[in-house]
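Researcher: Structure for this, please.
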Amino acid sequence: PDVVTAIQARFNKLSVASDDDALDVLSPKKPNWDLKRDIENKLNFLEKQTQQAILDLVRDKLTKEEQNDDENNMKVVRSEEEDEEVEEEQKTLQQQQQQQ
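Model: Predicted structure, token format:
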């Protein structure tokens, strides 16, 4: 009786192991490989669009910064010109006061 139960136990272990092995053979290694294959083209397209959008945003930002820099430079030039004009006016006023 012990031999029979030992053989049955060993048989059960082997049959369970063979069922698991059969499932491993039948099931794909990567269960979602077909999904990845099907959406790969769409993902590539979206990646290109994303990169283009990022590039456009960076270009816009740089353009705005250049415009702001140009405006600031113009303001500096204007303020320097205004300062020069004010100095000239002060000099002329001083000269007029000295002449009187």
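Researcher: Any notable elements?
Model: Residues 33-99 form the longest helix (67 residues). Helices lie at 2-26, 33-99.
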